[in-house]
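INFO batch 0412 | record 1 of 1 | parsing
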Amino acid sequence: MELGLPMIELHDVHVDYMVQRHGFSSIKSYLTSFGTKRLLERKRILHGVDLRIDSGECFGIVGRNGSGKSTLLRLLAGIVEPSKGVANIRGRVAPMLALGVGLEPELSGWENVRLCRLLMGHEHRDRDAIRRYVSTFSGLSDEDLAMQVKRYSTGMMARLGFAIATATDPEILLIDEVLAVGDVAFQQQCYRRIEALKAKGCTIVFVSHMLGEVQRICDRAACVEAGTIVKVGTTHEVGMYYHELLGIPT
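INFO prediction complete | emitting tokens
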């Protein structure tokens, strides 16, 4: 994809989830209400989202807990679809979302590598090269990688997930807070890999509460509040806006 062309375009996007209504503690309590009330209700998580991210950009997303950041990233990953509006995502997406998302806990680390290769359309790429990269980058031993992922620590899951997501030079890389669980040495290793992917023209969307890290690696950023994007601009502009939103003196 030529640099400067849009890789991600969202137009008036809304995302609704169906959630259990208050007042029903169980299916039994719903059934004993004789169907006079609906068990589920629609809750709007994102509304009126417009966004454009160009090829080769490293784009940051900040916002308070519950603001809709992770739902926005899941939309970009194709995990959820818009209830209204248009979402155009161009290119191969490698999502590194919340810990464990995309990893099958009953499978071993190596089996997860193969599964993710299949899901990302890399079944016929150099299997041995990918395995060497995952082993070297993650720092996990052969014994670790032969073990079921459900037995991994949070740090081990972060190492495996990031290694898998970045093993094949994705066109779009989505990262959601997960680097915070790794040790400092692994975090720095991840940031070096992000810089290398940027240099190759990869489009990166980086969600983090660490505003300093967003300003360090991102070209532009957006602030999400109450399910919509309230500010888009340089990382400095968005950082100032976010601090004002939180009531932090600047």
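INFO post-check: Residues 243 and 249 are 7 Å apart (CA to CA).
INFO record closed
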